[in-house]
Amino acid sequence: MSVVWAFPGQGAQRVGMGAGVLDRYPDLVRQADEILGYPIREVCLRGAEPGLTDTRSVQPALFVVNALSWLARREEGPAPDYLAGHSLGEYDALFAAGCFDFATGVRLTRRRGEIMGRAGGGGMLAVVGADPDHLAEVLERGGIDGVDLA
């Protein structure tokens, strides 16, 4: 049987995340604090400012918790056969695969959060099982353009 580790993306955050791993890796937490300029532990455990609703802080917070969870699990169990990540979680999968170090991951996800924080509001919708031609017709009637159908 294959072992797969899949890392979640934004939306998986919650106050209290990382409670089991943040104290286990104080040097890495300190490194993240220095890079980010605020205490990541307080953001993760208490939702302290800048908080867990702002993508600029959520993205590095999730990276840190997922990366530390990976390090803890790697010490305790078998290595996975495969690594995967959903959206932001891809950065943790790349870290776990050895593509870059922890500090680089914190910097990358901080920058990603900053860029996404500046992006205009938008939305996403998944309509599963609908006829693509019918959807295109409905969008056209509504004067909606710039929508990708896959």
TrEMBL record:
Keywords: Acyltransferase, Transferase. Its EC number is 2.3.1.39. GO terms for biological process: fatty acid biosynthetic process. GO terms for molecular function: [acyl-carrier-protein] S-malonyltransferase activity. This is [acyl-carrier-protein] S-malonyltransferase. The lineage of its organism: Bacteria, Bacillati, Actinomycetota, Actinomycetes, Kitasatosporales. It comes from Streptomyces parvus. One of its GO terms (cellular component) is cytosol. It catalyses: holo-[ACP] + malonyl-CoA = malonyl-[ACP] + CoA. Pfam families: Acyl_transf_1. Residues 6-150 form the Malonyl-CoA:ACP transacylase (MAT) domain. It comes from the Bacteria. InterPro entries: Ac_transferase_dom_sf, Acyl_transferase_dom, Acyl_Trfase/lysoPLipase, Mal-CoA-ACP_Trans/PKS_FabD.
